[in-house]
Amino acid sequence: MTEPSFAEDITGSPTAAPPLRAHSPEVSAAKARRWGAFYYAEQVLRVMKGYGWSIFLYSVGQPAAYLFAMGVGLATLVDTNTTVFGGVSYIAFIAPALLISAAVMTAATEFTFPVMDGFRWRRVYYAPHASPLTPEQIAGGQIIAVTFRFLLQSVIYFVIVAMFGASPSGWGWGSVVVATLAGLSFGLPLMAYAASIKEDKGQFAMVMRFIVMPLFLFSGTFFPLDTLPVVVRWIGWISPIWHGTELGRVMTYGYEESPVLTIVHVVFLLGLAWLGWVLTKRQFVKRMGQ
Question: Which of 112, 150, 233, 282 is deepest in the core (most CB within 10 A)?
Answer without folding.
Answer: 150
